[in-house]
Design a protein that fits this description.
The complex is a heterodimer. Chain A is mainly α. Chain A is built from 13 helices and two strands. A two-stranded antiparallel sheet of chain A has the order 1-2. In chain B, helix 9 crosses helix 17 and helix 14 packs parallel to helix 15. Classes of the chains: A mainly alpha, B alpha/beta. Chains A and B meet through helix 5 and helix 12 of A and helix 3, helix 12 and helix 17 of B.
């Protein structure tokens, strides 16, 4: 009889099946495909960008000059402010509207539930190019869709908010909220659908109904979905690019610049790979820091786990 | 057939197969027209097969080029704009002067319109007189107007700025958009500014680009003030700063809802798009063009401004493939070009070509006027993308009222000085 190979099941003295240890090294082998993919498609590009950001085009050796140039550029601070405003408004508003829609669809809509879910989710799956064209038309004074409605209440737009340096970023935020609220709704629908009915019934027996039930029972029980949306919202904010690029190109005069459009301009329009690389690294560090803060504050359990709704 | 016969047949077929050469081409040039050009070329050269990949210009094309350049996998022929895009890929491009001379004779460059020749060399290092791109098509910037609407409300082509203001006011009162400006797009703003700057001093933008005149020169400040005036005087539509020339402006103009729009000779291609076409677009019946009248303080109306619409370069990879130059030569100055001209895609870059086939007399007449003007056109292009970007932001800032003309141009001067 030959010796059992690693991992081969044998019958123990007690008659139960016992699995031999396969050793720590073999465990790591199973992680190898994921590790190789990570190194090729995540780690290597990041290291390449870091290298690019530290090496001037003239080959003058390692230099932090691009980082200094980024920090000295007022456009960087405009973009940082815009990103802060973007996150501070879009994340809570999307959560609040998405949560309310989810609650009313799941708890108060008996017919056409699927229809409403689909309709509110439709903007999420609509091409961003289409969204941009539609909203540019909505915002257009004179010939726009929005103006057609506003004229019935005596309002005449004299400018497009997209062309107003003080309004452009907020006009884009509205579009972003419109497009992504359906995603928040979907996350909350998943949460609400798995709320244990016995807890809700018990709360009702204890006298909690209406807003009281919502605020003290439903919302706390949806905390895992909220935490996930918060993390995704922060990362999504930092990745904002197509809607801004298509609607304002970061203008007028950088007024709606975000990190994505700024990096694109520096790297591809102005062909300054070093500054574009430095900007990318800064955004990467910001994303990492914000994610770590959230993990530290909320714990690692950002997604619903077994037994948690 | 015996086994020997099969082997013989295979051996005979191999040389025929091996003789078919392939040329790879990337560009943002309209796919349907390029297909016609390729078909015409392949008919002339049955031994060459052209594989064309179409990209949207931004961001797809410029990002694809950058990635391919970094990995050494550029195709044989790439679409280029003169100035910064050509210069960015100059290390990847083969000099073309000798190949062009061999194909078209030593004086070939004389047949290229002067403004195009100037742009072909734009940004080359001092002493480098090689051409790294051959232009295919040219353009002349102008103000298009809807002549049917003008006729309907009793307007004539504006000869003075007051005429332009009066026409805009009349169009607005009649429920039309006066002059559509997609001021969200830097390119259309640059084009109008170039018209204005050349009204005050022809060629001044080139002098500023060359460092011979500061960007804060009085003529350029006047042009910037006139730019703001186009918004304040109701010539551009309300909300122009949030609008895009494409697709919004072009669609509204084609539908007959806009009186005027600053575009260029390429607008003629609309009449070759698949039906249904509006009554205005059909044979360009509804449209004609004029040059921007003299704005207050300017000594003259805008001269023609223009240059290369699109050109092509032969990459170092393509240099090893003889068929690649054969295609590039046909595309810029041969049978493949003729197909693009027949589609009214734009004007030729070489003198001596004109659209043929199903083209109305009105279009032929406009095309001839453009060609005549192209020979004396001022340069439209920028050599340094930093300057173009700074000018785009300056124009947007002035239009929005957040920058004074002098301060805005100082930012352009700063960008120019940072080269």
């Amino acid at each position: 009889m030959s010796a059992p190979v690693l991992g081969e099941a044998t019958i123990g003295a007690s008659g139960g099946i016992r699995r031999r240890s396969i050793g720590p090294f073999v465990n790591y082998v199973f992680a190898l495909p994921a590790l190789i993919l990570f190194l090729m498609f995540v780690a290597y590009p990041i290291l390449w960008v870091i290298d690019e950001s530290l090496n001037p085009a003239n080959g003058a050796g390692l230099s932090m000059s691009a980082y200094n140039a980024v920090l000295a550029d007022p456009v960087f601070w405009t973009a940082l402010w815009n990103m802060t405003v973007w996150g501070a408004i879009t994340i809570p508003v999307q959560m609040a509207i998405g949560g309310l829609i989810a609650y009313f669809i799941e708890r108060h809509t008996f017919l056409l539930k699927g229809f409403f879910r689909t309709m509110f989710f439709l903007p999420v799956v609509t091409s961003v190019s289409v969204v941009a064209i539609v909203w540019v038309q909505i915002y257009a004074p004179y010939y726009g869709v929005g103006q057609e409605y506003l004229k019935y209440i005596g309002i005449r737009m004299s400018n497009s908010p997209l062309g107003d340096p003080h309004m452009a970023i907020y006009a884009l935020i509205v579009v972003n909220i419109w497009q992504w609220t359906g995603f928040s709704m979907l996350m909350y629908i998943a949460g609400i659908a798995s709320l244990p009915t016995e807890v809700l019934d018990a709360a009702k027996v204890d006298g909690a109904t209406g807003w009281r039930l919502g605020i003290h029972v439903v919302i706390p029980m949806l905390a895992p979905a909220t935490r996930s949306l918060l993390l995704l919202g922060v990362l999504g904010t930092l990745q904002t690019f197509p809607i801004v690029q298509l609607m304002t190109v970061g203008g007028p005069n950088h007024a709606s610049e975000v990190f994505g459009t700024f990096i694109f301009k520096e790297s591809f329009i102005l062909n300054d790979a070093q500054k574009g690389g430095a900007l990318s690294v800064i955004v990467l560090v910001l994303a990492l820091a914000l994610s770590l803060i959230q993990i530290f504050v909320f714990g690692a359990r950002l997604a619903p786990t077994k037994g948690e709704t | 057939m015996t086994a020997g016969g099969v082997v013989t047949a295979l051996l005979l077929s191999i040389p025929a197969y091996a003789e078919t050469k392939t040329v790879t081409v990337w560009s943002w040039f309209i796919q349907s027209t390029m297909n016609k050009s390729i078909a015409a070329f392949e008919k002339e050269h049955p031994d060459i097969q052209v594989k064309y990949v179409y990209y949207n210009y931004s961001p797809e094309y410029i990002t694809a080029l950058k990635a391919a350049s970094a990995s050494g996998s550029l195709p044989d022929v790439i679409g280029l704009q003169p100035g910064s895009l050509t210069q960015q890929y100059r290390p990847d491009l083969a000099p073309l002067s000798d190949k062009a001379a061999a194909s078209w004779g030593a004086s070939w460059a004389d047949k290229v319109f002067p403004v195009n020749r100037k742009q072909m060399l734009m940004g080359n290092p001092q002493g480098d007189s090689n051409y790294y791109m051959i232009p295919q098509e040219s353009q002349v910037l102008c103000v298009w107007y809807n002549r049917k609407i003008f006729e309907k409300i009793g307007l004539s082509v504006p000869k003075t700025y007051d005429d332009l203001k009066a026409a805009s006011s009349a169009l607005t009162k009649a429920g039309y958009i006066p002059m559509f400006q997609g001021a969200s797009d830097g390119w259309q703003n640059e084009n109008v500014f170039l018209m204005l700057a050349n009204e005050f001093s022809p060629g001044i933008v080139d002098k500023a680009q060359a460092g011979e005149t500061p960007w804060t020169a009085p003529e350029l400040v006047s042009a910037m003030k006139a730019w703001k005036g186009l918004f304040d005087d109701g010539i551009f539509q309300e909300g122009a700063l949030g609008a895009h020339a494409y697709p919004t402006g072009a669609q509204l103009f084609a539908q007959g809802r806009v009186g005027m729009i600053a575009l260029g000779s390429w607008w003629m291609q609309e009449s070759k798009f698949p039906p249904p076409l509006s009554e205005y677009v059909q044979n360009m019946d509804g449209f004609d063009f004029f040059y921007l009248p003299a704005v207050p303080g300017a000594p003259q109306a805008s001269p023609p401004v223009g240059g290369i619409d699109i050109g092509y370069g032969l990459t170092k990879n393509g240099e090893k493939n003889d068929a690649a130059w054969t295609f590039l030569a046909s595309l810029t100055n041969g049978a493949a070009l003729q197909q693009a001209l027949n589609d009214l895609n734009d004007l030729p870059a070489f003198d001596g070509h004109s659209p043929q086939g199903d083209v109305s007399d009105h279009v032929k007449q406009m095309s001839a006027r453009f060609m005549q003007d192209l020979s004396k056109a001022q340069n439209q292009r920028f050599a340094d993308p930093k300057v173009a970007e700074a000018l785009d932001n300056a124009l947007a800032g002035v239009a929005a009222g957040s920058l004074k003309p002098e301060d805005a141009l100082a930012t352009v001067q700063k960008a120019a000085a940072s080269k």
